[in-house]
Amino acid sequence: MARRVWRATITMSRFFSSDYRSLTPYTPGEQPQIRNLIKLNTNESPFPPSEKAVRAAAEAADSLHLYSDPTAKKLHEAIAKKLGVDVDEVLATNGSDEILNFAFMAFCDAAHPAAFADLTYGFYPVFAQLNGIPYTEIPLSEDFTIRVEDYIGINKTIFIANPNAPTGIFLARKEIERIVASNPDNVVLVDEAYVDFGAESCVPLIRKYDNLLVTQTFSKSRSMAGARLGFGVGSRDLIRDLNTIKYSTNPYNVNAMTMAAGIGALADEAYTKENCRQIIENREWTKRTLDSLGFVCTDSMTNFLFVKHPQIGGEAIYRALRERGILVRHFALPRIKDYNRITVSTREHMRILTEALSEIIGGNVS
Ligand code: PMP
Fold this sequence. Notes:
The protein has 2 domains: about 30-45 and about 270-360, Aspartate Aminotransferase, domain 1 (Alpha-Beta Complex), CATH 3.90.1150; about 50-265, Type I PLP-dependent aspartate aminotransferase-like (Major domain) (Aspartate Aminotransferase, domain 2, 3-Layer(aba) Sandwich), CATH 3.40.640.10. The chain is about 35% helix and about 15% strand. The protein has helices spanning about 50-60, 75-85, 95-105, 125-130, 175-180, 235-250, 255-265, 270-290, 315-325, 345-360, and strands at about 40, 90-95, 115, 135-140, 155-160, 190, 210-215, 230-235, 295, 305-310, 325, 340-345. The chain is globular and about 55 Å long.
């Protein structure tokens, strides 16, 4: 089957700006329209969005002839209330990808180059390149953990996915705090896309450090990947700077249906909590089962597992799963080519996955 993934660098018109000719765009996970495929490749939730979110979005559809509220007042109030911060310490965006881009634009330049791990969210180097920002990739240690010492006092704008992707590994808040405290003249952005699956948020630190920006998303724990809703939390001054970028690019960045859905989802925290509980339970079950089959999994605090087999290559496993109708994510990067990133889904899906992996390696699920 042809892979329909955007690869702008292969061809370009003669009109394409020289600023972007060498840009390698981000490669999103496949979204194939194949029926009965078990899709474990983009860390979506297997559960539908909250009924409250769906109902609120449907009601908002009646007003689609009007622009959405550029101040996102009600949504910001709902997020602020949930996190225990002030409304002007929050900015909602079109997915958290958008606030990441805003942060590269707002807080990086030649004097404040970017720094992030060599194995982390693949959009960071793309945003740096897009905005002409110099960047350094800091190698993770052999076991894929962050070496905190490498980030102490480096005088760069630091981006840390915590828990990290695609490794799933989490760094304790007190360690992040050491990094933030040691770089007072640079912003440290903590990308908490996966924080709701058992990790510890850095939001409680935003009043203590005016250089800390925390981002989160509704895409994972709140089952709203298709709605595109993320947000950042930080000092009023950081949020004001990000608003300058927002109002200079797209003041209506969050559409009216998504805004309403976000408020609906926040009014249904019991649903979100229960879904997260099930994902965590399924993650631990899957990890135990894979361990017993001889697979090696990192210690994931997310809704995915990062998995390798000591004898079988990552791409071979990816292909064998695909032949069985199960789609996972394989990265060709040399350091992680033996691994696959597998989204944690329902118990039924996880049972099918582990049985398929057992068959692939010629063993049995115990
Ligand atoms: N950060 C990380 C670490 C991610 O894995 C993702 C999801 N691809 C995002 C941010 C962006 O998520 P979204 O734009 O859907 O909020």
